[in-house]
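Quick log. Single chain, no ligands specified.
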Amino acid sequence: MRLPASMSFASAGIAACAFATPAVAAPSSVSVQNDSFNPKNVAVNAGEAVTWNFMEGGHNIDVYSGPETFKSTSGKDASGTSFAHTFNTPGSYQYICDYHGSMKGTVVVDAAPPPSSSPPPSSSPPPSDNPPATSPSPDQQSGLAPSTSLGTQPAVDAAPPTVSALRFRANALSLRLSEDGRLVVRYVRVGARGHVVHKRIVRARKGTVRLQLRRWMRAGRYRVHVMAFDAAGNASRPARTKLSLRP
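-> predicted structure:
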């Protein structure tokens, strides 16, 4: 008799599932009774334990071959007791009952499966194809090219002014100034060390500068100290000279 097509596909699916089902590992619990181990062969992963349940007394567990060896007890295990051991090293372990040579078993320990290396799912939203809208800059609104602030910064004046050719003639001081600025002039009378007799601050232009002396200055000898300051605050080296005022 020919089966319907739907029944044939269903039967094929059931058969495929039957062949695709993986083998189930042997249980990790062993019963000890009737002078035998049931089951005789056990498979576990590293880090798992095997438990032997003694349904009758007069037996023990003696693991005599494998990466490690041990016994359940130095004598006989009593009926109704259990013995468990955790296997941490992969390999094949052979064991027997010391009192019944026909009682034999095997424990196969496989390496523990590695942890999954797949990263956890990201909670951040997926990137958008459309970038967020931004408001146009003033340059974009006016249609001009973007301006930079580097070209608009004024140059820093770090060069100090200079005072040269300082001398006294015809009751006046004359000097040459390298740039416009302020002049600070100090007159110190000889014999009064450290005492500033007169301090004068004047604005001067670049070039030759003449400074008339005050008429009320007493007759005598003086040391003159002149410094110039430009608009940026740079100070010149001091220029010095000596002069004598007659009565």
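Residues 5-20 form the longest helix (16 residues).
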